[in-house]
Amino acid sequence: MENKIIDSILDSMAQVLPLFHRKLLRMDLGGISGDLSRLHFGIMEILSERDMTVTELARMTSMSKSQMTAAIDKLVKLDVLERHPDEKDRRVINIVLTEHGRILLREVRRKIKQNIKQILSSLTPDELAEMSAALKTLKEIGAKLQF
Q1: pLDDT digits over 6-40, tens only?
Q2: Helix H or strand E segment including 52
């Protein structure tokens, strides 16, 4: 019985995640993003929490170090990120989000939120309440999962 439930969950996730990806995440950012990809914004999101090395970022995103270096190089050229020597070990280079990067990230977050609000406004109040409850449940269950 448990395997059937897990198979059902996997099937539902395989259908739901791409649906939300298509409907909510592929949106016009009104020229804010320039030629930056979701990967670039993902890196910026991670670095908005704390500075990291290229190796740490690569590990977090399951990318190779060389792929991450290329993405970081592009963001450095655009004054979104900077490389700073570590204060304790100058051989270590930390990747830091610049003030320009923080402003850009805030603007992108604002635009995404605005777009999602517009998309969700087509739902009825009951559908919104159901979606809110379902997401709360998913969040609570997700916090219990061990990786």
Answers
A1: 888 888 888 887 777 766 656 666 666 567 888 88
A2: none
How many angstroms separate the CA atoms of 22 and 132, rounded? 19
For 146: left if phi > 0, alpha if psi spans -120 to 50, otherwise beta; the answer is beta
- In the chain, where the domains are located: 32-144
DSSP 28-46: --TTTTTT--HHHHHHHHH
Q: CATH 3.40.50.300: does it fit domain 32-144?
A: no
Query: With contact defined as beta carbons under 8 Å apart, do 117 and 132 qualify?
Result: no
The pTM for the full model equals: 0.73
pLDDT digits (tens, 9 = 90+) for 112-143: 888 888 888 999 999 999 999 998 998 898 88
